[in-house]
Amino acid sequence: MSADSSSTAKAVPSSSSSSSSTQRKFIKRPDDKAMKEEVESLKKEIKKLDLTNNELNAQIQKLQIDQKVMDERNKLQAELKVLISKQSSAKNERNNINDQIKSIDASMKKKIAEIQQQTSKNSFKTVGEIDARIDSLDKAIDAGNLKLADERRYVKEMSALRKLRKDFGSIEKIQTLIDQDKEKIAELKKKLQGTHNKEVQAQFETIQKKLDEINESNKSVISKRNKIYDQRSEIKKQKDAKYDEIRKLRSDFDAKFENFKKQMEQEKLKRDEEYKAQQAERKQAKLKQRAEQELADASIPAFTEEINSIHNLLSYFDPSYVKPATKTASSTNGSSAIPSTTKNQARVIEFPEDLVIVKKEQDDFFTGTKKKGKAAKKHHKKNFTVAPEIIVALSDLTIPYPLKEEDVAETIKTLKETLEALQEKQEEQTKVNIERAQAKIAKFKEEDFEDDEEDEEDQE
Q1: Tens digit of pLDDT for each residue in 284-305?
Q2: Is the dihedral angle over the CA atoms 48, 53, 57, 59 positive or is it negative?
Q3: Do 339 and 312 form a contact (C-beta atoms < 8 A)?
Q4: Which of 4, 38, 57, 405 has the greatest number of C-beta atoms within 10 Å?
Q5: CA 232 to CA 238: how far, in whole Å?
Q6: 324 or 415: whose pLDDT is higher?
């Protein structure tokens, strides 16, 4: 957006009724000059930091350790990485085995608790103990030395023991699963011992010791390099901070510029709305003025101009004719002595349909020419002329003009008949004109005036 956008558009000309429109708001374009200067200043500071960083890189290049020592160090570090990877794999494997042992042990404890719950109700722990008790009771009964009550009690106990023995069958299955879990745990623990590779640990410690010796022998150089590395890291942080400042400056300016564009758009919309309101106001005023003019023109008595013209013509042809007083003032030039139609172009005269105009055939009219001597005087007495403006006025009324003096009486008669006909129809035709004007006003109240206004603006 150019700098010209910083000012608002000029106020749109309005009608007198809208001259008190609100003052145009001045919207200032955000100045990017200060932002650019700050950005350039930060870029210069970044260049200085780059120079310092280059100097530190040069110092690091000077603080080099012997290449053989570096090769040995790199080799040991590579071996150490391999051992670390092995130890990491072994550790993951141990963790996996321990997880399996924990899972199996939890399942086994659950099974043991289930057996304990079932065996806690009696004194027998195994099926063998139950069988031994059954055999003992059976032998006592077979001996025949028992009382009848004891024998019945033993038989009842044997029946209960046999039922208990069936329940102990499921316990034996659980016990078998417990034994299997114990074997699995033992195998996993044995496998776990295999993951503790003492040889790998010994190699790791040996390599680490050699690296420590190399680092110790080059401690001063490494210390200086590390110090320079720290300085270089600090420079990087400073550069990053300055780049962040540049981004923030640009972001803030972009936000201000977006707000500026938004305000400009709002001001434009406001101007457009004001312009539309002014146009609507002008249109209404114009419509009112046009309606008033149409009604005023229609309210003038019909045939006023024609009637005034006839009165003037009668006065012209009959000097003794006295024009009667008119009821309404005429808007035409009827007060003049002789009507003039030279200013009217293509004037259309409305006559009632039942109006009959007496029109006589016109003979050729020739004005006399000047002759010498007595002949000229003789012909001058017989010449009859009519003023051109009178001929035009009669032509407008479609009344033939007199070709000779004897025709004047017929012309006067025709004028009076025409006057009478017009006066009879005047009131009726005036009402028709007013009704037509009112219908026309109603019509262009409904229509949009855009086309008319565009034509008038083009003409202006």
Answers
A1: 888 888 888 888 888 889 889 9
A2: positive
A3: yes
A4: 38
A5: 10
A6: 415
